[in-house]
Amino acid sequence: MRANIHLVDALNTSGVSGHTQKLWDWFSGPPLHIIVIFLIALIGQRLGSRAITKTMNRLASADLIPGPGNMAARQKERAKTTGTVLSSTLNAVIWVITLGMVLGEFGLNLGPLIASAGVIGVALGLGAQTIVRDVLSGLFMLVEDQYGVGDKVEVLDVSGIVEKVGLRITTVRDSQGTLWYLRNGEILKVGNHSQSG
């Protein structure tokens, strides 16, 4: 009788350990790899965003442009905008790579997908030339410090105070209170009444 009990216990134990082993074998494959990929992506995003924020805060507080107080405010605004652009770019790159790696874990062949993405990217690039031009113009406008928030400017046929400076759009409020949205790629010349020689 005792021998039978030991035999049943041994069979039950081996059955449980067999299921546990199968479960561990399954979990240590793609599910564990996907969890690790997401953790690395989150850590990379956090560290990258923190590094960008620290660098931009240093640039915003450094006395790079000696002059009146409004220059320091403008420098902070430019650093903030540049930091936002860098963070967005970093996040997009990290999550696109993460998505590709996760799809690879599911056994999806990424070669044709990447080739298709290249073709779609070219088509979108051709269709989105104005957006790219606006963003590049916005970057150069920020780097060259052509105008900033609070400046009185004449842009295109609009004259007023700059309320917001973005990479793609600049908003200007005229004397009648109308808020104008100006695409940076269309701004070919700017008259700034607030900047001193």
TrEMBL record:
Primary localization: membrane
GO molecular function: mechanosensitive monoatomic ion channel activity
SUPFAM superfamilies in UniProt: Mechanosensitive channel protein MscS (YggB), transmembrane region, Sm-like ribonucleoproteins
Ranges of residues in domain Mechanosensitive ion channel MscS: 130-194
Keywords: Cell membrane, Membrane, Transmembrane, Transmembrane helix
Coiled coil: none
Protein's membrane topology: Multi-pass membrane protein
One annotated Gene Ontology cellular component of this protein: plasma membrane
Protein name: Unannotated protein
Organism: freshwater metagenome
